[in-house]
Design brief:
The chain is of the alpha/beta class. Helix content is 44%, strand content 15%. The protein has twelve helices and ten strands. Helix 1 crosses helix 3, helix 4 packs parallel to helix 11 (288-304) and helix 9 (255-272) packs parallel to helix 11 (288-304). Residues 1-23 have low confidence and may be disordered. The structure holds zinc ion.
Length: 325
């Protein structure tokens, strides 16, 4: 498609406007008065430049000469998404949440242990408070990471900034106390990233963030034109078990078909020498007919060779160091 080129003066003015830190309220106030097709250049640029992908952080080489980094993560939502976050306490869905820590997580951990594959487990604080024994189960293997995934799987964009900040601060405190160490990674519940989220993540000193989708490769987050020093480990709905494994949804796919999508994603990452990151959920993928998809994927990766399996923290530290950040 052919694009018309705006004049340099227009671009410069838009960039100047966009690069000045512009909080969400300003962006929304500017945008609110007019239909989007009548927005000024500065309004559009300010909107898209709230959070942007900066430089590609793919290193020249992965550790051990590996071609590709493989990052497996589990969002251990359990009861928080099975009702609690919406204030509903229906017994049936809550029992599916209990399945997550009672049956699914142990099955997932047995597979990872057998394959010697490390993973990162993102917890809403309430998921840990309900079943703190999950910490011991995860830490027994001595290779996994525990990170934070909100307080009760709240939707950040539905909250005002101070409330979002308070919930994340108390979540980090709770996870730190229960897991015995302060998490360095953050993933927004439902990947729901409010215009305040990045400022909060920066203020709290996280090493990395993993909720956004501007690349397949690790990159540096840029806020209103300013590089933040925070590593983004991007996600994608293609690389998530939740939408396609929902038997009540309208897009259910057999697990072995989903496994093939993941294998194709991995093979291209292997060719391109970049990164493969998969998001799963114990209460979804820990079922017997679905764990075979993860098992088949890991077997494929192991057989192909050249993969560096790492936690998100290990990968974030490595790319940051390699980039001289
Ligand atoms: Zn989640």
């Amino acid at each position: 498609m052919r694009h018309t080129t705006p004049s340099l003066a227009v671009l410069a003015a838009a960039l100047a406007a966009a690069c000045a830190p512009q909080p969400r309220a300003d962006v929304e106030a500017t945008a609110a008065g007019a239909a989007p097709w009548d927005w000024s250049d500065s309004t559009v640029f300010a909107a898209v430049n709230q959070v942007r992908a900066g430089r590609d952080l793919t290193p020249a080489a992965w550790p051990g000469g590996a071609r590709v980094a493989v990052l497996i993560s589990f969002d251990v939502d359990n009861e928080t998404v099975q009702g609690l976050r919406d204030g509903t306490v229906s017994v049936g869905p809550l029992s599916q949440g209990q399945y997550g820590h009672r049956t699914a997580l142990p099955r997932v951990l047995r597979l990872l242990e057998g394959e010697r594959v490390p993973a990162t487990f993102f917890f809403p604080a309430w998921s840990l408070k309900i079943a703190p024994e999950q910490v011991g189960m995860i830490q027994a293997a001595g290779m996994h990471e525990i990170a934070v995934h909100g307080w009760i799987h709240e939707r950040n964009s539905a909250l005002d900034g101070p409330t979002e900040r308070r919930l994340l601060e108390q979540a980090v405190d709770a996870v730190t106390e229960i897991a015995g160490g302060r998490p360095v990674g953050y993933r927004a519940p439902s990947w729901n990233f409010s215009p305040n989220t990045l400022s909060i993540v920066r203020d709290m000193g996280f090493l990395y963030e993993s909720s956004l989708m501007a690349d397949d490769r690790p990159y540096e987050l840029v806020q209103a034109g300013e590089p933040t020093g925070i590593v983004e480990l991007p996600v994608e709905w293609i690389l998530d078990d939740a939408p396609l494994f929902n038997p009540q949804g309208d897009s259910y796919s057999p697990p072995r078909d989903v496994m093939q999508v993941w294998i194709d994603e991995f093979d291209k990452a292997w060719e391109e020498r970049t990164m493969f990151l998969l998001t799963m959920h114990p209460h979804i993928s820990g079922h017997r007919s679905r764990i075979v998809a993860l098992e088949g994927l890991i077997d494929h990766i192991q057989a192909k060779g050249g993969a560096w399996f790492a936690t998100h923290e290990e990968a974030a530290r490595y790319v940051k160091e390699q980039a001289g950040m």
